[in-house]
Amino acid sequence: MSEFVRYTSPDEDSGRWQGFPFRDGDIVISTRSKAGTTWVQMICALLIFQQPELPAPVGWYSPWLDRLTRPVEDVVARLEAQRHRRFIKTHTPLDGIPIDPRATYIVVGRHPLDSAVSLYYQGENINRERQRQLTEEATGQPVPAQPAGPRKPVREWLLDWIDNGASPHEQMDSIRGVFWHDSDAWGRRSEPNIVLLHYADLSADLEGQMRQLARRLDIAVPDLAWPELVEAATFASMRASAERITGRSTILKSTAAFFRRGTSGAGRELLTGAELAHYHARAARLGPADMLAWLHRPGDAVIQEEPRG
Fold it and tell me: Which of 184, 189, 199, 271 is deepest in the core (most CB within 10 A)?
């Protein structure tokens, strides 16, 4: 890729965006892992189709283009066959994908400590061997098996994550990767086709955020339709319909565990005052002050049940 940065991981390659045929009205959902990806995919589906129950899993309508477990030709062909407004998932920062004026790009922020803890628990729910097999089948290239072994307790893991020095290009979900993803989007927030959402705002005022997003996407929703659509986007509804929303994944060990009951602030609760101060000192070196104020604001401390994307 020459026009933008290439990000790779054992199961992702942003190079698959090269030459992607955009259409008028396309929506790209660009999030860091566990920032609310599936939640925003579901919200977009509800706004586009305007019915509370989807005939197929949300990932069928909104495929993850970068993921290596399916051939890129198959994913693009599925998107090309769609006649509804398309909404595409990616975990790639905006500097790693084409910014097309016909598309709208939604970036979701979440307190990094909370998304990190969610990432830890989600890691236990992934069948790594099955993921490796599917990647080999899709790419035709051998993928080294990841060594299995006991994981550190979550608090020790989180402290290591805070001090991890890996660049975003080595580990997109490292602390530097998280702050780069959000900082890059923050710097583009005045552009007309860039939309920033925050997990805390979605938690505190789901209907208001959905209505605001509908306006940004120029989607008209009849007033009588809003109550059902908002209810379908709540954590309780999504968890009750977990298999229908996510499909029968062979990579997830448990579909139900994908929607884990939790609280915002769980990451901070694991740390002492000194450790939390250390985290904020590290954060101050990784992002601009106004973006950090947006990302860490007090509204994110509200207790909630979290849909995990």
Answer: 199
Supply 303's token pair.
Answer: 């207790």
Alpha carbons 304 and 261: distance in angstroms, whole number: 8
DSSP classification of residue 169: T
Helices (H), 101-168: 112-123, 128-139, 154-163
Torsion 9-15-16-21 (CA) sign: positive
- The Cα 285–Cα 8 span in angstroms is 24
Q: Give catalytic residues, as residue numbers.
A: 91
As a whole number of angstroms, the distance between CA 197 and CA 95 comes to: 18
Mind listing the pLDDT tens digit for each residue in 251-286?
A: 665 555 445 544 467 788 899 999 999 999 999 999
Across the strands, what pairs with 278?
A: none
Per-residue pLDDT tens for 60-97?
Answer: 999 999 999 999 999 999 999 999 999 999 999 999 99
Tokens encoding 204: 């505190």
- How far apart, in whole angstroms, are the C-alpha atoms of residue 71 and residue 140? 9
Q: What is the end-to-end Cα distance of the chain in Å, rounded?
A: 27
What are the residue boundaries of the structural domains of the chain, listed by start?
Answer: 8-301
The reported pTM is 0.90
Dist. CA 262–CA 283, nearest whole Å: 24
Q: Which runs of consecutive H residues, i.e. helices, occur in the chain?
A: 37-49, 58-61, 72-81, 112-123, 128-139, 154-163, 175-187, 199-204, 206-216, 226-232, 235-240, 242-246, 266-269, 273-284, 289-296
